[in-house]
From TrEMBL:
Keywords: Membrane, Transmembrane, Transmembrane helix. This is Inner membrane component domain-containing protein. The keyword Cell inner membrane does not apply. Residues 5-56, 70-120 form the Inner membrane component domain. Pfam families: YccF. The chain crosses the membrane at residues 12-42, 63-82, 88-108. InterPro entries: Inner_membrane_protein, UCP028777, YccF. The lineage of its organism: Bacteria, Bacillati, Actinomycetota, Actinomycetes, Micromonosporales. The keyword Transmembrane applies. GO terms for cellular component: plasma membrane.
Amino acid sequence: MIRFLLNVLWLIFGGGLVLAIGYGIAALICFVLVVTIPFGVASLRLASYSLWPFGRTLAPKPGVGVASGLANIIWVLLAGWWLALSHIVAGVGLCLTIIGIPFGVANFKLVPAAIWPLGQEVVPAP
């Protein structure tokens, strides 16, 4: 019940809806530029994760190869670093208030996903 309440509050006040729309627009751009379709799929995964982060976590996807690692390096250079930086800045800002601490932690939880999205999947938290 607490996770549901935190997710609803995250959606309204924590920026979850704005993040999901941003990742969705990035996914659409990646789908239009056919070569970047894997990045679009990863961006949709991030949109889903940023929309409802409480109660879910990242796990390595089994059977991921070297191509995924190379694509992640390209992702970090083009988009990952500034996405991660924006999550860190938002997380620090939210942690300045007691009420915002859970939302700041959720932003920090999104940093690894923003940096290295390919080869990972979103799974329910234990």
